[in-house]
Amino acid sequence: MTEIQVGESLDPLGDLESFESMTATKNRAKVGSARPSNLLYTYGPGSTMDLPSFTVMPAGFDDWESIWRRRPGQPPRVHAPRLLDAVRTHLGRQVAELRPFPWAPKATAQSKEGDDLGVSARVFPQWMRCTGCDQLGPLTRFSYRNTNPYRPDEARFEHEKCPGRRGKPSKRPIPAVPARYLLACPDGHLDEFPYDWWVHQGGNCPSADVPPLKMEDRTVGKGASATITCTSCGSRRAMNEAQGEAGAAKLPRCRGRHPHLGLFEQAGCVNRTKLMLLGASNLWFPATLSIVVMPESNVETAASIAADLLVLVGPKRVEKWQGDLGRWHEFLEDEESELATLSKEKLAAAVAELLAPPPSQEQIEEQRKNFDPVSLLVPEWNYLQREPLGPHHKADGTSGLILSPPNGGVHQKLAANHVTRVLAVDKLRKVNAVLGFTRIDEMERANDVGKRLVRLARDGRPTWTVATEDRGEGVYLQLDEEAVAAWETKVEASDLWEAHRAAHERNFNARFSETAKDVDPDARFRPARYWLLHTLSHVLIREMAMYSGYSAASLSERIYAWRAEEGRPAAAGLLIVTTASDSDGTLGGLVQLSESGNLERVMSRALRRASRCSSDPVCAHRTPKEPEDFLHGAACHTCAMASETSCERANRFLDRRFLVDLPGGQGFGFFH
């Protein structure tokens, strides 16, 4: 678990833990902890993380550097050259490494090995409301209390000498909670709600320079139900006036604030703001890339070697030595670096990569625009086409991949249903890296990713980004390409497929951001083979959870489904894996299911269950018709949908009619 720490430069009250002379009742900086996967996909930099008594925002990477400097030597690195190259495409060539979260394991719960590490965070929002008297104000008006070193969940802000709502002062401090209204804009800026400005209709209080405010909230579950009151002049204004299109016109323009970086945009921001509730699902969308590390994907490129050189020698020596390979080689030998064994040609190519002029902003934007996420899957697909060398094909130690053919080969019943290849993935390593985040619209719903992707460092050019390593096991299954191609041609000429395509176009036009208007909706639509493999993956995950010892939410999918194009062969396969940052992802339950008889039994039962649903015939006949714009057909939470931790497409592009023949399903079932 990675600790969340409120640091001295971040917390307006200061990091009181730095005062060594304080007693055992001192306030502490540690306020909570989270798993690395949570910090990557749910509570990354720029998001709001709910703690029991208040909310914090993990800070940008600039503030993480002071955490790393507490340990001697270079920070640890995550080795994944192919993923690093993809990250550099989006963030620039100055990105030299992938780093894990600043965390160290502890021998016991009471030991202090990792107390100096943690993720820096800010208290945000910094306007609080007293639960005893409704006083509304910045957190400097409240007292911070966090004295138990083993109970960071008890950290809280309190209102001392609270007068109460009826004028009866409390004998004990009363907890204060975050005021839950924020302002956001499509370019990723986030700001406190201007309560003083709001209650005075955009003006100033006539009775006081710093007027005392109250937030009265007597109802629950009705949106912006609070009322703001100035106790000095008596002005009152309800928060529900800020809701909807009419309310948006009453809000101030965006100030261009990035609270995770502690700055405002110098050029300001021209966008209108939008009222957001703390914890809203569209307040923060992560932008991430991930790969399953294969041996070929682990081969160093000139770009990745250049990144290693830059970390080792630093930019000043690069500028001083230029192309003097003798000095480079001498330095690498003196440092006893593994890079000293590089051939002269590889070293020259890496140095040339370092000395090349940085790409212009236009070139970076073009790289981002042309980046195809499928390019991360192609090397994995190519490697999975190889036959394992013996009963266990162990890759190099860095990739950590172990493949083996299943006992008994491919079952004859599976072969009759066009399953041509099955592999047991005894061990694998998956690496996930964060690029940034967006607000209001998901990254895939915007077309100007370069503008909408919020930066993670103050200068916009981070020299590293955070990554997590997950280890686990899995089962790989591949379908016959000729059978899939013939089936795909038949399906994509049908009225059912046209209904799905039209629904996707309506969904795209209704839900995608304004910046995506010039995008062809069909360019974001998945081919029929993807629907087939995606639906198959979901029904297998549901069935495998009953036999593998894992919960369905801990199993995830990786779909290889695309037509042949220049530079890459056609693909029709899926990988069901369980991955975790510890040994819980490698219990062996999935690998057992890859055995011939086991897999045939699991798949037969999965397809049999897919032919029935307790919501039939409604589910079996579900076809989107105008104005409906849902992105699934005969699929619901009873029969084919999976948890968000399992599905790579948020339960879109699913239809049981493509797996098996259903009553009235027009005979499109791939399996018989």
Q: Which residues sit in consecutive blocks of at least 5 with pLDDT less than 50? A: 8-24
* CA-based shape: globular
Instruction: Determine the structural class based on helices, strands and strand pairing.
Output: alpha+beta
Give the integer mean of the pLDDT values: 84
Q: Kindly, what is the distance between the CA atoms of the first and last residues, rounded to a whole number of angstroms?
A: 47 Å
Strand content: 15-25%
Instruction: Work out the radius of gyration.
Output: 28 Å
Helix content: 10-25%
What is the overall number of helices?
A: 18
Protein name: MrfA-like Zn-binding domain-containing protein
Pfam families: MZB
Domain MrfA-like Zn-binding: 536-639
Strand and helix layout:
Blueprint: E1 2-6, E2 30-34, H1 36-41, E3 49-50, E4 55-58, H2 65-68, H3 81-91, E5 97-99, E6 119-123, E7 127-130, E8 135-138, E9 143-145, E10 156-159, E11 174-178, E12 181-184, E13 190-192, H4 195-199, E14 213-216, E15 227-230, E16 236-238, H5 244-248, E17 257-258, E18 263-264, E19 274-277, E20 285-292, H6 302-313, H7 315-321, H8 325-334, H9 344-355, H10 361-370, H11 378-384, E21 393-394, E22 402-404, H12 412-416, E23 419-438, H13 449-452, E24 464-479, H14 481-491, H15 495-511, H16 528-548, E25 555-562, E26 571-580, H17 589-593, H18 596-610
Parallel strand pairs: 1-6, 5-24
Antiparallel strand pairs: 1-2, 3-4, 4-6, 7-8, 7-11, 8-14, 9-10, 10-11, 12-13, 12-19, 14-15, 15-16, 17-18, 20-23, 21-22, 22-23, 23-24, 24-26, 25-26
